[in-house]
Amino acid sequence: MPGVLGRAKWSKGQPVVSLMNPMVPVRWITIHHDGMTPFVATDERSSAGRIELIRNGHRGKGWGDIGYHFAIDRAGRVWEGRPLKWQGAHVKDHNEGNIGILVIGNFDEQSPSAMQLKALEKQVKMVMLKYKIPASRVKTHREWAGAKTACPGKSLQNYVTGWRSRGIKA
Ligand SMILES: [Zn+2]
């Protein structure tokens, strides 16, 4: 996708194909935060390190790769996560046809940056257009039935709620 930094820029390991399923037709977008310590760095290297840290954590759970398909950093860069040809691992029991977009940071403890929000909107719209996903299928993690999580944190959840009331348009 245009403007997306390839995983070679951050990943120290390749996806493990035997631990992933192929993507089925895409019908959903889910927005997340990482929920780790607050993150304020805007440089490329720090963001790359954070994403690699998350990949390592996910590999440690026995997953084939980082669970999200995209990651958006504090400066508004969009990074490739798990390649789109593979189903993600980001909403328990609801990963089929679900593209996971991570906004880097902990939005129970900080607010997303303006550049991050701008990039999030742009990326969501791009994915909506590419896969013909209606606004009603753009969710946050906690909005999934059965999700036991505060993700994507209070401030990002509030933002998405406001965005939805203004109308999420591709
Ligand atoms: Zn989440």
Could you write a compact summary of the structure shown?
The chain has 170 residues and is an alpha/beta fold. It has helices spanning 44-60, 114-131, 154-166; strands at residues 4-5, 28-33, 70-72, 78-80, 98-103, 138-140.
Description:
The chain is an alpha/beta fold and 170 residues long. It has a single domain (27-166), classed as Peptidoglycan recognition protein-like (Lysozyme-like). Helix content is 28%, strand content 14%. The chain contains three helices and six strands. It has helices at 44-60, 114-131, 154-166; strands at 4-5, 28-33, 70-72, 78-80, 98-103, 138-140. The chain has a six-stranded mixed β-sheet with strand order 1-4-3-5-2-6, with helices on one face. Strand 3 and strand 4 form a beta hairpin. The protein is globular and about 40 Å long. The relative contact order is 0.21. The mean pLDDT is 97. It binds zinc ion (ZN).
What are the SSEs and their pairings?
Elements: E1 4-5, E2 28-33, H1 44-60, E3 70-72, E4 78-80, E5 98-103, H2 114-131, E6 138-140, H3 154-166
Parallel strand pairs: 1-4, 2-5, 2-6, 3-5
Antiparallel strand pairs: 3-4
Bound molecules: zinc ion.
Zinc ion is lined by residues 32, 90, 141, 149, 151.
Radius of gyration: 15 Å
Shape: globular
The CATH first-level class comes to: Alpha Beta
CATH superfamily: Peptidoglycan recognition protein-like
Low-confidence stretches: none
How does CATH name the architecture?
Answer: 3-Layer(aba) Sandwich
Strand content: 5-15%
Strand order across the biggest sheet? Answer: 1-4-3-5-2-6
